[in-house]
Amino acid sequence: MNDLFDLTGRTAVVTGAKRGIGLAMAEALAAAGADIVGVSATLSPAESEVRSRVEAHGQRFHGYAVDFADRGAVLSFAETVVTEHGPIDILVNNAGTIRRAPAAEHALADWDHVLDVNLSSQFALTQALGRGMLERGLGKVIFTASLLSFQGGITVPGYAASKSGIAGLTKALANEWTARGVNVNAIAPGYIATDNTQALQDDPDRSRSILERIPAGRWGRADDLGGATVFLASRASDYVSGVTLPVDGGWLGR
Ligand SMILES: NC(=O)c1ccc[n+]([C@@H]2O[C@H](COP(=O)([O-])OP(=O)(O)OC[C@H]3O[C@@H](n4cnc5c(N)ncnc54)[C@H](OP(=O)(O)O)[C@@H]3O)[C@@H](O)[C@H]2O)c1
Prior knowledge:
alpha/beta; Rossmann fold; binds NADP nicotinamide-adenine-dinucleotide phosphate
């Protein structure tokens, strides 16, 4: 039974691996046996928390700093990954950013930045690494979506558009790639206590009203995402594709 979730011998690329949800996802994949190629805007190749945690599970870690707002840098990172780490089995597209301002005043530069980082670069990287998966007829792609793949949110129009785009992209890629051995799915985290949600955690009214709606009765932790990540990266999910899986303490059921 446990073999269903075994990732021994697999290599996973995890974006946004330096902290928060990506760090927890990288650690969960390593605990299941995968080697990790981690990347984020400011990740030190030499020393990092994610490196320590992955290596503590006896797995190899390679780290890169890449700005996902820079399309050229993303494409060159993809080439480096293919050249230096060979076939990639698992791609976790998790790097993401958020800019908060009411829609009427929302700076177009913020809109462009969020769409570039959260959506366009993820397509560019998935296309580049997905080609190798399609050639081998084997691969697992996991996007980090959001509750705002289903809902509109408040004062985050670019973020909501990008995450709704991720849900659509997940289905579009799944339609083309599943029959060729590549599963494409997304995880939609609920309200998770990370830097990304610091502004909400710091606002007593928003924080309380969010908590009141979560059936689990608590905000999520980054490590709450580990199980779904390993599931979607492993043989256990071979007949699952095109899905955006909420891991939200029951939020969407309310
Ligand atoms: N927290 C939540 O409640 C929640 C809910 C739903 C969805 N999500 C999504 O989950 C993902 C991870 O978020 P998080 O909560 O873990 O946030 P976080 O703690 O702010 O971490 C974000 C990660 O993304 C990386 N990143 C941001 N901008 C980047 C850029 N321009 N280029 C490369 N990497 C960049 C960061 O890199 P550095 O560390 O180098 O800065 C960091 O590693 C995001 O896609 C987010 O939208 C979060």
